């Protein structure tokens, strides 16, 4: 008999209780893994196209030939990190995740699609506040303050105007983005996932900090509506 629902892990955090659950979905006849923050759904293994495209589109704009050092903001179900590892140029992938629980799920290989991610020798899972590190002078590597990266790929908030935690709002200003851009190498790439359509206001803010700003809608099939849904991936280059 197929188990319809199982909670695999949960833990309190300053933002609320974060939990991982597995359920059998009769609509798609498959097991689905979901992450919730309190009663709010954050991500689902059913909808991963745009999370993967965040890495593909972001790294495609990096012109460096090899030995890339990459930051991923937000581990989640691991699809963005896994997609980044498909690029053979990646030397080190540092994933900055706020929740110890999420890191623990991956270290215990609770998610079938990303088994082995935590054990990959190129990967460092770091429990820290991405936004705090991004806007600090020290940056993402306490042992090498001011270290710069070839790409920073961000998938944490629902969008640049819908935050999981209100303090994140400061990051999406010109001042916050400029502080983060200092941790990119010249011509390094910043890419960010959004659940909303391209926002002209955010495009304007990005263009005030970066060059070559693009917003691409990523479409995917939605089995619940029988139609198509979309997310947005923004990419920008440090001048």
What would your notes on this structure say?
This protein has 239 residues and is α/β, with parallel strands linked by helices. The chain contains 6 helices and 11 strands. The protein has helices at residues 49-60, 79-84, 100-107, 130-134, 174-181, 200-207, and strands spanning 5-13, 16-25, 30-37, 40-44, 68-73, 90-97, 123-127, 149-154, 184-194, 211-222, 227-237. Strands 7-6-5-8-9-11-10 form a 7-stranded mixed β-sheet. Strands 1-2-3-4 form a 4-stranded antiparallel β-sheet, with helices on one face. Helix 3 links the parallel strand 6 and strand 7. The longest helix is centred in the first third of the chain and has 12 residues, at 49-60. The chain is globular and about 50 Å long. It starts with a strand and ends with a strand. The model has no long low-confidence stretch (mean pLDDT 94).
- Sequence stretches where pLDDT stays below 50 over 5 or more residues: none
Task: Return the average pLDDT rounded to an integer.
Answer: 94
Strand content: 35-45%
Give the number of helices: 6
N to C succession of SSEs: EEEEHEHEHEHEHEHEE
* Helix coverage percent: 10-25%
Biggest β-sheet: count, sense, barrel?
Answer: 7 strands, mixed
Strand order of the largest sheet: 7-6-5-8-9-11-10
Calculate Rg over CA atoms: 17 Å
Describe how the helices and strands are arranged.
Elements (H helix, E strand, L loop, with lengths): L4 E9 L2 E10 L4 E8 L2 E5 L4 H12 L7 E6 L5 H6 L5 E8 L2 H8 L15 E5 L2 H5 L14 E6 L19 H8 L2 E11 L5 H8 L3 E12 L4 E11 L2
């Amino acid at each position: 008999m197929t188990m319809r629902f199982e909670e695999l892990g949960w833990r309190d955090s300053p933002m609320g209780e974060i939990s991982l659950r597995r359920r059998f979905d009769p609509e798609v006849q498959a097991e689905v893994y979901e992450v919730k923050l309190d009663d709010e759904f954050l991500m689902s293994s059913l909808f991963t196209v745009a999370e993967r495209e965040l890495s593909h589109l972001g790294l495609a704009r990096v012109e460096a030939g090899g030995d890339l050092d990459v930051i991923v903001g937000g581990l989640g179900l691991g699809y963005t990190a896994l997609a980044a590892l498909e690029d053979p140029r990646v030397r080190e992938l540092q994933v900055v995740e706020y929740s110890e629980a999420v890191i623990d799920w991956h270290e215990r290989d609770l998610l079938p699609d990303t088994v082995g991610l935590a054990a990959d020798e190129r990967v460092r899972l770091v429990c820290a506040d991405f936004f705090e590190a991004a806007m600090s002078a020290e940056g993402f590597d306490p042992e090498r303050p001011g270290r710069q990266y070839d790409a920073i790929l961000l998938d944490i908030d629902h969008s640049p105007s819908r935050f999981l935690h209100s303090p994140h709002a400061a990051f999406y200003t010109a001042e916050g983005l400029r502080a983060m851009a200092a941790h990119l190498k010249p011509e390094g790439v910043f890419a960010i996932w959004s659940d909303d359509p391209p926002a002209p206001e955010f495009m304007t803010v990005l263009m005030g900090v970066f060059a070559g700003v693009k917003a691409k809608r990523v479409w995917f099939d939605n089995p619940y509506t029988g139609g198509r849904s979309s997310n947005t991936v923004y990419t920008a280059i440090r001048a």
